[in-house]
């Protein structure tokens, strides 16, 4: 069934779904018990050893007693997907995800500063009586729904905004000058909360545990890495995440097996010679010539050393040195970026960039230091979809939106810090379209004109929830 048709039929049959799911939609806590307690021993998985990350709040909620009968989705069927989609497109969820997205959109916070965003998420989790651990990676949250036992499957959203001034005039425009959710992370958070609501409603169906990861600092590059360091993936055997895409119409889901997004690194080289009068160049050591030779030679790495079938990029984007037209300067600083789709190609580019700069500098009697900002973690490995996890996403997507609305997408040279998770456990990253010409949601991420079609939010929530529940169903 294709998505628009299914959605229409669900809206028409909304009465049916509200009746069917209302009993689980809002579990009412009995008056004499407060099921939420603060319990430091509730954290799933072994305690981390590092003394650095000690102060976790662990809010534990004892699970509600399971309903008496529900053979419902013992074996996954299209009806189960439709049930999830029904919950997602119910007015309550639609309103919830839209409100959350708008609140976060109006109050964007940059990498590792997502305190209010994180608070808003935790308030929602509290309201839904969902257990979580906080903080991981300063503002991150690891929440969980299900049996508390294996298997564990993770779904992830990023929370940070960008240092961009929003240029879209609308009711929920960013209230913070110079900051904007221009990459859809507000929508990603809303979708994951929508999924949490759906999964909580269907908790009695879960044959294991869904871990919800709300991570900081995707744009800064080390949010995912620090989440992993703080135990985000403990016990987790598979992980999934979504990104909105202006390249596909609303309602389309896309992904591909294998390499999806490039590994991305930056380099900065300082080439040092010896300053001197330009009229007598033999008394100086010229770093301009050495740096120029290095730039030319860098172009030979991809064109002469890389397999043409294995896309790679080396771009020099910065070249600075000297400000006196009569002097040869001491140093030239040049830098740029490099991309590749396999770990091997990526690290071999890194190695060759270093060698080429250092050795070209030495041809002209200069020395060179090359920095790849490894400490700052601006190196992202490639995002590689595990074949089986990709296949899982494809199956789920086809059930939700129909075969004609699932697309195998080409790989892209952009990067995503989801790659850090994909290096640790089998992972799949997928897109959900937000393009709508009428609304004007046609701008690329990181544009000040970036707009999303909010109709995507329930579908994103349904995709997350189905991926997680069905994974447990088929691996539990
Ligand atoms: C732990 O967190 C609590 C509440 O946020 C705070 O009062 C306390 O000072 C923190 N302790 C440490 C060791 O950081
Ligand atoms: C990628 O290569 C680097 C450097 O050789 C290595 O440290 C890392 O473990 C590799 N990752 C994977 C997933 O192979
Ligand atoms: C685009 O948005 C408009 C306004 O919300 C809506 O009427 C239309 O159906 C949407 N088009 C698609 C292809 O989703």
Description:
- The longest helix is centred in the C-terminal third of the chain and has 21 residues, at 343-363.
- This protein has helices at 3-12, 14-25, 78-88, 91-106, 115-127, 185-201, 223-229, 287-305, 343-363, 387-401, 418-424, 456-475; strands at 36-38, 57-61, 131-136, 140-146, 152-158, 209-215, 236-249, 253-255, 258-261, 263-272, 276-277, 312-320, 327-328, 331-340, 367-371, 383-385, 406-408, 427-435.
- Helix 4 packs antiparallel against helix 6 and helix 8 (287-305) runs antiparallel to helix 9.
- The strands form four sheets. Strands 1-2-3-4-6-5-7-18-8-17 form a ten-stranded mixed sheet, with helices on both faces. Strands 12-14-10-15 form a four-stranded antiparallel sheet, covered by helices on one side. Strands 9-16 form a two-stranded antiparallel sheet.
- The model is unreliable at 1-55 and 62-70 (pLDDT under 50).
- It folds into two domains: 3-27 and 35-64 and 72-261 and 382-475, Aminopeptidase (3-Layer(aba) Sandwich), CATH 3.40.630.10; 264-371, 2-Layer Sandwich (Alpha-Beta Plaits).
- Helix content is 35%, strand content 23%.
- It is built from twelve helices and 18 strands.
- Bound molecules: 2-acetamido-2-deoxy-beta-D-glucopyranose (3 copies).
- One 2-acetamido-2-deoxy-beta-D-glucopyranose is lined by residues 249-250, 436, 438-439.
């Amino acid at each position: 069934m294709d998505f628009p048709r299914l959605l229409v039929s669900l809206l028409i049959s909304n009465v049916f779904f509200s009746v069917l799911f209302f009993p689980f939609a809002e579990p009412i806590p009995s008056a004499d018990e407060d099921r939420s307690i603060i319990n430091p021993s509730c954290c799933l998985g072994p305690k981390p050893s590092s003394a650095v990350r000690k102060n976790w709040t662990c809010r534990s909620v004892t699970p509600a007693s399971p309903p008496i009968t529900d053979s419902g989705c013992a074996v996954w069927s299209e009806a189960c997907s439709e049930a999830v989609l029904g919950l997602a497109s119910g007015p309550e969820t639609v309103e919830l995800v839209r409100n959350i997205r708008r609140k976060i959109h109006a109050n964007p916070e940059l990498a590792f500063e997502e305190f209010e965003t994180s608070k808003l998420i935790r308030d929602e989790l509290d309201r839904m009586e969902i257990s979580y651990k906080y903080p991981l990676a300063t503002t991150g949250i690891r929440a969980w729904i299900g049996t508390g036992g294996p298997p564990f499957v993770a779904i992830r959203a990023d929370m940070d905004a960008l240092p961009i001034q929003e240029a879209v005039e609308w009711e929920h425009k960013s209230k913070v000058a110079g900051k904007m959710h221009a990459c859809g992370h507000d929508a990603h958070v809303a979708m994951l909360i929508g999924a949490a609501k759906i999964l909580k409603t269907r908790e009695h169906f879960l044959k294991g545990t869904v871990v919800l990861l709300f991570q900081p600092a995707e744009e800064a590059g080390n949010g995912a890495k620090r989440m992993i360091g703080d135990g985000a993936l403990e016990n987790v055997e598979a992980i999934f995440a979504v990104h909105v895409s202006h390249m596909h119409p609303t309602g389309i889901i896309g992904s591909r097996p294998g390499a999806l997004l490039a590994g991305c690194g930056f380099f900065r080289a300082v080439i040092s010679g010896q300053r001197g009068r330009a009229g007598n160049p033999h008394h100086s050591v010229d770093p301009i010539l050495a740096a120029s030779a290095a730039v030319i030679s860098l172009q030979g790495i991809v064109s002469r050393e890389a397999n043409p079938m294995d896309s790679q990029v080396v771009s020099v984007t910065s070249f600075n040195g000297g400000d006196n037209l009569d002097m040869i300067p001491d140093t030239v600083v040049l830098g740029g970026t490099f991309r590749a789709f396999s770990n091997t190609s990526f690290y071999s580019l890194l190695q060759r960039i270093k060698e080429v700069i250092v050795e070209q500098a030495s041809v002209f009697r200069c020395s060179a230091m090359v920095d790849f900002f490894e400490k700052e973690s601006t190196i992202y490995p490639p995002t590689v979809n595990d074949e089986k996890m990709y296949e899982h996403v494809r199956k789920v997507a086809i059930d939700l939106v129909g075969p004609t609305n699932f697309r195998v997408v080409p790989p892209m040279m952009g990067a995503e810090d989801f790659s850090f998770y994909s290096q640790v456990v089998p992972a799949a990253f997928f897109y959900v379209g937000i393009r709508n010409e009428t609304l004007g949601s046609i701008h690329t991420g990181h544009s000040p004109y970036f707009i999303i079609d909010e109709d995507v939010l329930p579908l994103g929530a349904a995709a997350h929830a189905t991926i997680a529940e069905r994974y447990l169903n088929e691996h539990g």
